[in-house]
């Protein structure tokens, strides 16, 4: 007959074996709660809805196995398998229901955040990795940082560069071409540029007057000459910002090829030809074939991004003057003002390099046209010196290139 101590030991052993299931399930529950925080929603969901219930039911079955003395072993095994299948079905069924694609306009929950779901044009392939949208506090902080930057950028005096050119243009108000032919006897280094200038303005003036009487008054002649010179400045600026190649000839050295790289335009873009045509149509150049040229050409006119190009009458107290303005008011303004400064009103005078017969000379007067380039760069204490230097080099390149057309 067993003793009292043996019975107590057997009771304690039975208690320990019965408590293994609940204690183990409790330990697993605490471990899951600590291991899978809300930042990992999918694994947390699997743990809470599948693992923990499975552990507790298995613990219950382990405890009940010792109590269900009337159950046979096969019945106990079948009950355990059934319970496990129920647990797995409930866990994965609830998982699929929870993470199903949300209809448009509903909220998709991810952890402790809620964001409006977008209407996808294709099935949602990964609804878990949602983009981060800035909160109102984050937006407010970004605005404050920007305000601090603006407040610390104090406006400074603008950087201004100016360049003045002058050119003599004879005008024939009698028979023949309005501008006589330019044929210099000497051969300056910039002969090709100056010759091209006079050839161009002669053709444009002739085209603008096609089917019309030649202007007689000084004011009408001023308008014609100033507009063709302004357009030449525009064309020359475009050429200077493009790669050029060709040849030059000298009677001493003969012919040799030349290649000139384009000026480096800051943050360069191509200006829309449609906008150029719209501008030119409002000037005398709208009468010429240049409109068709800009409709068909593949040539580009480059400007810094954000710039506009305008042909207009001067607004700086120069009545009768004509401006070409390229500008982005927030950064810079580049203006070329074309104005007649001197008129040799006596007929019969031709500048050096022009040829005409005696009858043409009798109807020719010479006009002095000035071209003033003015560049203004807006500066603050926050201005990037590298950007400023890029604009300065661009402007110097335009001024120096234009000088070859006008300066002897």
Short description:
With about 400 residues, the protein is an alpha+beta fold.
Secondary structure: elements and pairs:
Blueprint: H1 4-35, H2 41-65, H3 73-98, E1 107-110, E2 113-116, H4 136-152, E3 155-172, E4 181-182, H5 191-208, H6 218-240, E5 244-250, E6 254-260, E7 268-270, H7 273-280, H8 290-296, E8 302-304, E9 308-313, E10 322-328, E11 332-344, E12 354-355, H9 358-362, E13 364-380, H10 385-406
Antiparallel strand pairs: 1-2, 3-13, 4-12, 5-6, 7-8, 9-10, 10-11, 11-13
Helix pairs in contact: 1-2, 2-3, 5-6, 6-10
How would you characterize the overall build of this protein?
With 408 residues, this protein is an alpha+beta fold. The chain folds into two domains: 8-98; 158-406, no CATH class. The chain is built from ten helices and 13 strands. It has helices at 4-35, 41-65, 73-98, 136-152, 191-208, 218-240, 273-280, 290-296, 358-362, 385-406; strands at residues 107-110, 113-116, 155-172, 181-182, 244-250, 254-260, 268-270, 302-304, 308-313, 322-328, 332-344, 354-355, 364-380. The strands form five sheets. A five-stranded antiparallel sheet has the order 3-13-11-10-9. A hairpin with a 3-residue loop joins strand 5 and strand 6 (254-260). Helix 6 packs across helix 10 (385-406). The protein is elongated, with a radius of gyration of 44 Å. It starts with a helix and ends with a helix. Mean pLDDT is 75; it is low at 4-12 and 99-127.
């Amino acid at each position: 007959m067993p003793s009292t101590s043996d019975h107590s030991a057997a009771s304690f052993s039975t208690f320990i074996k019965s408590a293994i299931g609940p204690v183990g399930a409790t330990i697993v529950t605490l471990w899951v709660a600590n291991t899978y925080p809300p930042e990992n929603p999918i694994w947390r969901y699997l743990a809470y809805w599948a693992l923990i219930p499975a552990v507790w039911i298995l613990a219950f079955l382990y405890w009940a196995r010792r109590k269900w003395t009337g159950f046979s072993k096969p019945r106990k095994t079948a009950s355990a398998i059934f319970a496990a299948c129920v647990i797995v079905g409930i866990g994965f069924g609830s998982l699929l229901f929870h993470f199903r694609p949300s209809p448009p306009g509903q909220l998709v929950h991810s952890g402790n955040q809620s964001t409006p779901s977008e209407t996808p044009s294709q099935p949602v392939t990964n609804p878990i990795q949602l983009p981060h949208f800035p909160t109102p506090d984050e937006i407010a902080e970004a605005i404050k940082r920007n305000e601090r930057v603006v407040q610390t950028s104090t406006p400074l005096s603008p950087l201004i560069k100016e360049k003045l050119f002058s050119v003599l243009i004879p005008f024939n108000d009698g028979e023949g071409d309005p501008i006589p032919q330019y044929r210099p006897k000497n051969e300056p280094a910039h002969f090709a540029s100056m010759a091209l200038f006079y050839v161009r303005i002669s053709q444009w003036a002739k085209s603008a007057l096609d089917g019309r009487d030649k202007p007689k008054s000084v004011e009408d002649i001023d308008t014609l000459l100033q507009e063709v010179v302004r357009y030449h400045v525009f064309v020359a600026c475009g050429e200077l910002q493009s790669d050029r190649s060709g040849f030059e000839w000298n009677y001493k050295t003969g012919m040799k090829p030349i290649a000139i790289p384009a000026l480096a335009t800051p943050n360069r873009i191509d200006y829309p030809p449609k906008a150029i045509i719209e501008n030119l149509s409002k000037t005398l150049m709208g009468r010429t074939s240049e409109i068709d040229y800009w409709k068909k050409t593949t040539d580009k006119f480059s400007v810094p991004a954000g710039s506009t190009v305008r042909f207009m009458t001067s607004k700086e107290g120069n009545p009768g003057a004509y401006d070409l303005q390229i500008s982005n008011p927030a950064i810079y303004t580049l203006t070329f003002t074309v104005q007649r400064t001197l008129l040799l009103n006596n007929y019969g005078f031709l500048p050096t390099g022009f040829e005409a017969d005696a009858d043409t000379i009798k109807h020719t007067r010479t006009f002095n046209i000035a071209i003033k380039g003015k560049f203004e760069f807006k500066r603050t204490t926050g201005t990037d010196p590298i950007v400023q230097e890029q604009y300065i080099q661009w402007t110097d390149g335009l001024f120096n290139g234009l000088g070859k057309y006008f300066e002897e």
